[in-house]
Specification:
By secondary structure, the chain is mainly α. The protein is built from 5 helices and no strands.
Amino acid sequence: MTNRDVTISKNIKRLREDAGMSQAELSRRLSVSQAFINRVENLRVKAPADLLFGVADIFGCTLDELAGRDRPT
């Protein structure tokens, strides 16, 4: 995993928690399993591009922000 992968995983978790959303709710909204969200957040797998686009849409941020190029609000 690269530093960018770590940043993306941490940002997904932070955005989810800041929104008061469970992994189960995020997984339903993204049409993936809760276990997959858990693996992404805990750096067991890289988040695929389609998941990143979905996360950005849900939380109203850009892919650059998810990657740590700008801080998500």
